[in-house]
Specification:
This protein is an alpha+beta fold and about 130 residues long. It has a single domain, classed as TATA-Binding Protein (2-Layer Sandwich). It contains 5 helices and 5 strands. The chain has helices at about 10-25, 35-45, 60-70, 95-100, 105-125, and strands at about 5-10, 30-35, 50-55, 80-85, 90-95. The chain has a 5-stranded antiparallel β-sheet with strand order 1-5-4-3-2. Strand 4 and strand 5 (about 90-95) form a beta hairpin. Helix 1 (about 10-25) packs across helix 5 (about 105-125) and helix 3 packs antiparallel against helix 5. The longest helix has 21 residues, at about 105-125.
């Protein structure tokens, strides 16, 4: 599977703060944030519930990936989707880095994918 997810019993804004803090505890910084709700509104005049894509990255792991296979930067960072599910619930969906990095033939990328997945699983567990 390409992702795993959890549902938080928190409104979207609170969940965003909670998710970012949990990522930082695992030394996964947010290097990008895409406000899909705002993009859809601006580009298509379409209203959707709050939906953000966070690009989470651990520089040490990213360095190993790029050093082993320079073009593999296209597989980074680990995306985390935070979306409003209504009724003060928020779904947090984590890209499975093991699945993504296993697209490469590099054993080093496979190892990094396993480590990154364990970090994200710990984040998900902290959010429960």
């Amino acid at each position: 599977m390409y992702e795993f997810n959890i549902t938080l019993n928190q409104p979207f804004k609170q969940a965003m703060e909670t998710v970012k803090a949990a990522l930082m505890e695992e030394k996964l910084g947010v290097v990008s944030e895409i406000d899909v709700q705002a993009v859809f509104k601006k580009k298509m005049d379409k209203d959707i519930p709050p939906y953000r894509i966070l690009g989470a990255c651990n520089p040490m792991l990213a360095d190993r990936v790029i050093a082993a296979e320079p073009n593999s930067g296209s597989l980074l960072p680990c995306n985390v989707v935070v979306r409003d599910a209504g009724e003060d619930k928020t779904v947090v969906s984590f890209m499975d880095p093991e699945t993504v990095l296993n697209l490469s033939d590099s054993s080093e990328l496979h190892a990094v994918g396993q480590e990154a997945k364990q970090k994200l699983l710990r984040v998900a567990e902290k959010l429960r």
